[in-house]
């Protein structure tokens, strides 16, 4: 925790109270939440960034796309457009945001991808289109309480669980940890592989889940290949490269690449970073660039980088996967 965050600690009770009061007004029905006559699944967190929402959305897409017409609805963080946007062949990271563009690039033939800061307007617009979706996945909408989702999935990282954190500005929580009681499913994400049952039980004890809640643990699985738009390479055969990241927490990726004994330098930018022309000129001097899939969505538009730019895909692995999948499918069947 840096010095500025320590200095701002006196403001924590004020932020805590304001966000607690907002939630209480929703709980009491003073502020209204809208429900919808079709399934809406919310994926979110209590903390700011870096909990693995994007791979979780992709997990759900892969789980549901064969049996349902799926749509994703995101805010479209840092996009240069406003209002509702439905992704199409002219879309890019600037028009819909890097994460929605990642969904569209991977699943454009299977799902609808949309963005709208006003989630209610986004849902109503999706409902009104020809051949509307049968299920909507709300990305990063746990605090967006104007929509009452049918099922709420809350993510919290193993290295920084919400129950050990403070609210902003000293900690990373967007709202008090009591907000976790709204979740139907709590997933402790980015866990070490082969996490023992004893440690899982210790986490569950600290979470103290309510009767309606189930707790799962997930890990990140890295691919053994990196991909460009036209090519792929085995990571074991990579020469020295430059790792470029603009994500909330690049440490797990760096640890994985070091574990593989790869030779690389790391250029680390802030989350959702907008690369400047100077950045692109510097990167153009690199022989080989490896990046995350999200960063690839923003960097691939630059023609000079295309022949040297590759991304490393990731997937989510969930313990008790069958139980988790059945919970989601049972919700949809009974919605």
UniProtKB/TrEMBL annotation:
Pathway: Glycolipid biosynthesis; lipid IV(A) biosynthesis; lipid IV(A) from (3R)-3-hydroxytetradecanoyl-[acyl-carrier-protein] and UDP-N-acetyl-alpha-D-glucosamine: step 6/6. Its EC number is 2.7.1.130. The keyword Nucleotidyltransferase does not apply. It holds the Pfam family LpxK. ATP binds at residues 47-54. It catalyses: a lipid A disaccharide + ATP = a lipid IVA + ADP + H(+). It is an enzyme of class 2 (transferase). Keywords: ATP-binding, Kinase, Lipid A biosynthesis, Lipid biosynthesis, Lipid metabolism, Nucleotide-binding, Transferase. GO terms for biological process: lipid A biosynthetic process; lipopolysaccharide core region biosynthetic process. One of its GO terms (cellular component) is plasma membrane. InterPro entries: LpxK (IPR003758), P-loop_NTPase (IPR027417). One of its GO terms (molecular function) is ATP binding. NCBIfam families: lpxK. Belongs to the LpxK family. Transfers the gamma-phosphate of ATP to the 4'-position of a tetraacyldisaccharide 1-phosphate intermediate (termed DS-1-P) to form tetraacyldisaccharide 1,4'-bis-phosphate (lipid IVA). PANTHER family: TETRAACYLDISACCHARIDE 4'-KINASE, TETRAACYLDISACCHARIDE 4'-KINASE, MITOCHONDRIAL-RELATED. This is Tetraacyldisaccharide 4'-kinase. The lineage of its organism: Bacteria, Pseudomonadati, Bacteroidota, Flavobacteriia, Flavobacteriales.
